[in-house]
């Protein structure tokens, strides 16, 4: 029997990238999936890919920032699939970007409505179904941008950070209902949203391989595998947790670049305390 046979999984932002990759992984494990997205062509394509991978899938065009649309998505998915076991809150975009003094209030609020309000709405409408079922798992997509600040991405960073404590507060409240709530922080993943020149995907992939210690581009299925784990019974004692999946990027620093061959040291060295460096003549 497959790991998610008979389980129902709701995925927002399922038309593309991480949502699509995760949907396919759940489908390979036998799940029944409901996909929500604004992108109908992409959503239908993902549903087809899920069916081909061995799952069942439906797509419902949904603006995740809209309360009525999210309620309709959740209710329709629950009735068509037969309840809700897993909710993956994942839809997103970069939102308002630019110098802080130039950001408009309208763009700021719109970013929050898609990146934060949608996650609250997903939880609000799915939790009653999970309680009825005796439990469930919620996973939301934050970002390494929610763990670190970066210039010109203030709204995105603030939104993704908000998801960390929404995850924790919901986990604290819902544990006694056997509903686990966790959050993932992807690093740089090769999806249409990833930064860089998408006109030459091979070059972009090669460039992304240099952006973190693991020397390859992050892939949607890297995130999907973590979401499957968090949704599985093997993660039954994990809740309120934030998992970073970034190929080691935050283990180092944001500006990590794979060193050029000639810069790779051929032997070990020792750099002492900084106050000694001048004295050693090393600075
Ligand atoms: N790609 C990365 O490097 C990366 C890194 C960290 C976090 N993330 C996060 O991962 C999530 C998925 O992003 P992705 O990289 O797969 O990008 P993507 O663009 O491939 O997928 C995002 C999906 O969300 C959908 N969406 C956006 N606004 C929506 C709305 N209002 N209603 C319904 N659907 C909407 C888009 O149509 C798209 O299909 C996002 O939350 C993003 O912030 C991505």
From TrEMBL:
The keyword Ribonucleoprotein does not apply. It comes from the Bacteria. The keyword Oxidoreductase applies. Keywords: Oxidoreductase. Transmembrane segments: none annotated. InterPro entries: NAD(P)-bd_dom_sf, Sc_DH/Rdtase_CS, SDR_DHRS6-like, SDR_fam. Pfam families: adh_short_C2 (PF13561). GO terms for molecular function: oxidoreductase activity. Belongs to the short-chain dehydrogenases/reductases (SDR) family. This is Short-chain dehydrogenase/reductase SDR.
């Amino acid at each position: 029997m497959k790991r998610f046979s008979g389980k129902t999984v709701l995925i927002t932002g399922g038309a593309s990238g991480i949502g699509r990759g995760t949907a396919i992984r759940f489908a390979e494990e036998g799940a029944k999936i409901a996909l929500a997205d604004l992108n109908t062509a992409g959503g239908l394509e993902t549903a087809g890919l899920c069916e081909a991978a061995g799952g069942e899938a439906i797509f419902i065009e949904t603006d995740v920032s809209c309360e009525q649309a999210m309620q309709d998505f959740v209710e329709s998915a629950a009735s068509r699939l037969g309840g809700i076991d897993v909710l993956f809150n994942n839809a997103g975009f970069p939102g308002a970007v630019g110098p802080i003094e130039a950001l408009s209030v309208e763009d700021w609020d719109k970013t929050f409505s898609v990146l934060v309000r949608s996650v609250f709405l997903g939880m609000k409408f799915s939790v009653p179904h999970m309680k009825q079922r005796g439990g469930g798992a919620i996973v939301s997509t934050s970002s390494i941008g929610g763990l670190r600040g970066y210039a010109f991405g203030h709204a995105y960073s603030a939104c993704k950070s908000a998801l960390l404590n929404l995850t924790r507060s919901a986990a604290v409240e819902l544990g006694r209902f056997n509903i686990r709530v966790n959050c993932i922080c992807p690093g740089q993943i090769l999806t249409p949203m990833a930064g860089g020149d998408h006109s030459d995907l091979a070059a972009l992939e090669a460039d992304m391989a240099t952006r973190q210690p693991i020397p390859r581009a992050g892939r949607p299925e890297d995130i999907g595998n973590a979401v499957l784990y968090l949704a599985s019974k093997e993660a039954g004692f994990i809740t309120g947790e934030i998992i970073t999946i970034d190929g080691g990027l935050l283990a180092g620093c944001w500006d990590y670049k794979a060193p050029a061959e000639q810069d790779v040291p051929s032997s070990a060295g020792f750099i002492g305390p900084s106050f000694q460096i001048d004295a050693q003549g090393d600075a």
